[in-house]
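Think of the structure tokens as a kind of shorthand, similar to the way a musician reads notation: each symbol stands for something richer, in this case the local conformation of the backbone. In the example below we present two proteins back to back. Begin with the first one, reading the sequence and then the tokens, and try to describe in your own words what changes along the chain.
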Amino acid sequence: MPTATKQDYYETLGVKRGAAADEIRKAYRRLARKHHPDVNPGDKSAEEKFKQIQEAYDVLSDPKKRKMYDQFGFYSEQFKGGPGPGAGGFDFGGFDFSDFAAGGPEASGRGPGFRDIFSDFFSRFTGGAAERPAEPARGADLEYEVEIGFWDSIRGTVRKLAISRLADCTACHGTGAAGGPAACTACNGRGTVSQQTGRMRFNLTCTRCQGSGRVRTICRHCRGEGKLARPETLDVRIPAGVADGSRVRVPGRGNAGSAGAPPGDLYIITRVRPHEFFERRGDDIHTVVPITVSEAALGARIEVPTVDGRALLKVPAGTQSGTRFRLREKGAPSLRTPTRRGDHYVEVRIVLPPVLDERQKEMLKNFGRLTREDPRAEIYAAAQR
């Protein structure tokens, strides 16, 4: 537990009273890096500021301590830290309770001493435990977009990709600490911090150093984060069948984990450039193919382009413009099931030939007189209903 002072802990960290724990942690890290004694050697004001920042964070980062600070003012101005008369010593109204603190009354069988009373009281509000070590946490996943052509999405390809990912700091091996232990700035190496209410004082174990008076120093290379951004160049295989917006997973190429946890994954988001003839919908391919009047009227076998090359399509006699035909398993390969294929849908559209001379015009007129069919008859009937 840090020494209480007149400072406003929220003001010290530059956050609002209702700030979230993540916001408090970020503010502490930013200020601690700026005012750390290792970064400002010989600067007494920076050292004092760092102590205040550490004291504020030790309280506000612990939910129980923060609750007492907010609701009961336990760390407010009425509690002013000062050196106690000794480890466990008390001073109240000019009366010396050190004998009780040393366990005198307990030895006489008169009940628990003041040390146990106050130790139990503060453990309920502060948790009574030192700062817990960081728990293993898997590294964050990364996402990168890669633009590819239509044919690369159908056949697959390999792309060289430059990324930036957080890797373990080589100086501290991901621990965030460097060098041997140094004196704890929260307790000035004593291992205990003092509290006072009224004229009663008591000493408590420093939670930052767990009473040892020594702490590890922050690594200057990564500023205590344990991670550094590192550029990497990868050869990423884009499998056949990816579509626009597909996610390709590259295991273990995300940010490094903490405390020995595994790294995250890298996800490649594919952006496929459209093709001028083939249109992909899911795993199916759609195309529009022109046919002549005679092919539509009399029927024909025509060649149509597919992703596998040309394929033969049978057009029945009397085919209307806009009719769709399906070529089974001529579509794109499935990304989830590579052994499966989509279908290829061909929509035929009748294209009229240009009329170049009088002979062609006469032939068309004769054809019209022979058929004597009104294609708008059904429209007229429907309009009367």
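Once you have a description of the first chain, move to the second and do the same.
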Amino acid sequence: MISEALLRKLGCPTCLEAEGCERCRRDTAGPADYAERAGCSCGGPDKVALRADGDEALRCPACAARYPLDRAGGHADLSPRSAVGAVTQYADHEFHERLGVVDAPPVLSARVKADMMRGLLDLKPGDSVLDLGCGAGKFALYASDCGATASGVDIAPFFLPRAAATLDLVIGDLRRLPFRKGSFPKAYTLDVLEHLDETGVREVLLEARRALTANGRLFVYTHAMESSKLAAFQRAVNRLAKRLGRRGLIDHEREAMRKSDHVNAIRSHEHFEELCAGAGLRVADRRYYNVVFKAVIEDLLLRMIEQRRRARAGASAAREHDGHQPVAAHAHAHEHAHDHAPAAPRKPPTRFELAVAMALTWLLKLDVVLFGGVRTGPFFGVLEKTRS
């Protein structure tokens, strides 16, 4: 969706206005000295407001870059016209398809994260919230379910149809957000910062701070390179899952794919606080995520059940295929069955499956209730501004 409210918030991702303090003021607006000016202790100049260029595009009056509005697709493309840094493999269409995101409410650990976001941000009906790194839009849809007005920005345009129809969506780089100052009172980022190097983490925090209102709050879920004694249990479960995966008893590939381009630049919680301070933010609240129930239920047992069901479905399909195809043709088809074969689309869960998953989700929430005060790497944090 491309609403009038969204259009009023948009700015050129790489151009700053001329006005600023003595250190960041320039004679003309534009992209010159962006990093220095954007990181100024005064908060830096605002992004240059975009102007309509017909009904299907916006144009920056400073650099003349043209940004298309895909009204049929329901999003605006405000990605920088030159590379900012390394691009995650989540921007690859085939990779995204293999992840198999479906339009269904988040459950299990995803629901734990989503509920922590809604709770710690105190998300209420009428609130405006920005999803930084929204992916297909699943969490943004969940945020809107409570009555909030959710917007999402991601480098890849692989949005769920319902997200494209109901949410304000922007293709953009989190390191160069295409939003004017103070556009959102609340924002969040889930499972994103670990994909960035240290410079990228710093830039995302700085850009998020600029997009927030004076009393705005940013929720993050990511992890530092630390671990607790409880984390040793999770590592043991992961080793078991890998061994079962090699024997074909569990599908360990999707989880390995999801983490395959993790950079893990945050060395410790103190290091994260330093990065926040450099961006004009402070950690106002933090809860740790030691996964014990999740490790057993979601990472092991449910994957074993899913793999067994998949094997049964494959065997049933093979028997049906054998009954309708000559033996020679079947042998030839089987020989080439995996040649460039796309991943089978994941079906949305049934009502019964959702009910079971929600029941298990309550068990997984015990990881936060019981162990949320035990320092470890993964954490939920709420950040606030320290300077205006």
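Compare your description with these statements about the second chain. Residues 249 and 311 are 9 Å apart (CA to CA).
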